[in-house]
Amino acid sequence: MSTTTVRRAGAREWGGLAVLSLPTVLLGLDVTVLYLALPALAGDLRPSGTEELWIMDAYGFLIAGFLITMGTLGDRIGRRKLLMIGAAAFGAVSVLAAYSGSAEMLIAARSALGIAGATLMPSTLALISNMFTDQRQRSLAIGVWATSFALGMALGPVVGGVMLDHFWWGSAFLLAVPVAIVLLVAAPFLIPEYRAPRSGRFDLLSVALSLVAILPVIYAVKRFAKDGPDAPTVIAAVIGLAFAVLFVRRQDKLASPLLDVRLFTDRTFSAALSVLLVGLVGVGGSMLLITQQLQFVEGLPPVEAGLWMGPPALLMFLAAIGAPLLARRVPPGIVVAATLALSTVGYVLLTQVDAAGGIALMVIGFGLVYLGLGAIAALGTDLVVGAAPPEKAGSASAMSETVQELGLALGVAILGSLATAVYRDRIDGEIPAGAPSEVADTAGDSLAGAASSAHRLPAGWFDHAKEAATSGMNLAMLVAAVCTLVLAFLSAVVLRHVGVIGGEPDGDGADEGDPVEAAKSEA
User: How wide is the angle at C-alpha 26 spanned by C-alphas 20 and 30, nearest 5°?
Assistant: First the structure.
C-alpha cells in the first residue's frame, strides 16, 4: 500500500500562482481587445471580408486545435519549460502583430499567437496541480486561476478602449510584452519544474489526427453561427468527427498516447467535463447577445459597455473563490447545482429585457449567469484535474480547456443563430420597399448590419430592428434557462458520489478496477 505525502503550499507557491495568473488574464484579454481594435486596423490594413474573419478567428482556431498537443508535450518536456517557451513566443509574436503591415501578416501573427497561447493554458493549470497538492488549497488555487481568464475578457474592452484613445491599434497587442517579461523573470524562482516519468515517445501522427479532428469541428461550429447548416458546414463537421474516431482508436492502442482515453473511465472526470461543456454553451451565447444588446440597442460605446460588464465579472470572481470554500462543507455536486439554479434565474430575467431600456435588468441577469460560470469553472476544472494521475495533469488540463473552448463556440453558434433567425423573421417586411437592395440585405441580415445601414433608411426604422433583436435574445435566453435548469438537476445526480473537498472518500467515488485510480495509487 503506497502513501503520498501532502505538503501544504506556502508563500512561494501562492506567489507562483500570481505569476501563473498573469498569462491567463492576458489570454482572456486578447480574446476581446481585438473587437475594439478591428475598425481602426481595418481602416489601416484594408482587409477583405474573408481576411477580416480570419484576423478574428485564427487565434481561437489554433488555440483549440493545439491544446491537447501542448498539454501532453508539457508533460514530456517539462511544464515550466513549455510555459516559458510559450510566454517568450507570445511576447515576440505580439510585437509582430502590433507592427503588421498587411492583413496577411496579421493573420499569420494571430495564428502564431494561437499556437503560443495553447502552450500557456494547460501549462498553467497543470503546474497548479503540482504546486498545490493539498486538495483544499488546490481547489482554491484553481478558483483563482479560473477567474483570471474571464477577468481578462472583462478588462479587454476597458483596457483596449483606453489604449486606442491614446495610441494606434497595434498598441493593444503590446500589452503581452511586459507580462511575458515578468513571467520569464519570476518563473524560475517561484514555479517548480515537473516532467512526467516514463512519458514515452511523442506520437506525431496522433498530433496530426487531433488537429484534423478538432479544427474542422471548430470551423463548422463557427460557420454554422454565420451561415447556418450549409454544405461546407456539414462536410467540415463530418470530416472532424471521422478523424476524431480515428484519433481515439489510435490512442487506445498506444503505450504512450497523446491523450489517455482511459481517463474517461473515471466517472468524475467524464461528468465534470460534461458539466463544463454544456454550462459554457449558455455562457457563450449570452455573452455575445448581451454585448450586442449593450452596444447596438442601448447605444453604449465599447468602453462603457465593458464597464457595465464589471459587476457580473465580480460575481463570477466571488463564485469561483467561494464555491471551493463552500465545497469543503457541502458536496461539490450540490454547490454546482445550486449555482446553476441561480444562473437559471438570471437567464429568466434576461427573457424580460425589452428594447426600451433595461441595462440594470441585463446586468443583474448576466451577473447571476456569471455566478454559475464561476462555480462550474472552479469546481469542474478542479474535479477534472483531480481525477487524473499527476503525470497526466497536463493532458487532463488540456481536455478541460478544450471542452470549455468548444462550449463557448457552440453557445455562440446555437444561441446566436437562434437569435438571428428570430431577428430575420421579425424584421422581414419592416424594411421599406424602396430601399436599395444592398441596404435591405445588410439591414435584414443582422442588428450590426442594421446599425450600419440605419442612416440610409427612414427615421425611426432602427427601433424596429432593436425590437426584433431583443425578441431574438429573449427566446435564446429562454432556451438557455431550460437547458441550465436541466443541467442543474443532472449535476446533482452525476456528481452525487463526489464527497466534500478535503474530506474522506465516501467509498463510492471510483469504480472497482478503474485504471486511472490504480495509476494514481501507484504514483
Answer: 155
* Helix (H), strand (E) counts: the chain: 19, 0
Residue 199, pLDDT score: 61
Q: Give 411-443 pLDDT, tens digit per residue.
A: 877 888 788 888 888 877 666 666 666 666 666
Helix locations, 351-436, DSSP H: 359-375, 381-387, 393-427
Residue 332 and residue 268 in contact, taking contact as beta carbons nearer than 8 Å: no
Q: What is the mean pLDDT of the chain?
A: 78
Cell 469504480 found at: 511
Cβ pair 381, 373 in contact under 8 A: no
- Residue at 437: amino acid letter: S
Q: Are 251 and 260 in contact (CB under 8 A)?
A: yes
What's the length of the chain? 523
Output the furthest CA–CA distance in the chain (Å, rounded).
82
Q: Using CA atoms, how far apart are residues 245 and 66, in angstroms rounded to an integer?
A: 18
Instruction: Check: pTM over 0.90? Answer yes or no.
Output: no
Report yes or no: 240 and 402 within 8 Å, Cβ to Cβ.
no
What are the residues whose beta carbons fall under 8 Å from the beta carbon of 84, sequence distance 6 or more?
183, 184, 187
> With contact defined as beta carbons under 8 Å apart, do 87 and 20 qualify?
no
CB 374 within 8 A of CB 320: yes
> One-letter amino acid identity for 235?
I
Cell triple for 216: 474542422
Question: Is the pLDDT assigned to residue 126 strictly greater than 60?
Answer: yes
Residue 5 grid coordinates:
505525502
Cα–Cα distances in angstroms (integers) from residue 334 to residues 150, 183, 521, in the given order: 23, 37, 27
| 498-523 burial code (b ≥16 CB/10 A, e <16) | bbbbeeeeeeeebeeebebbebbeee
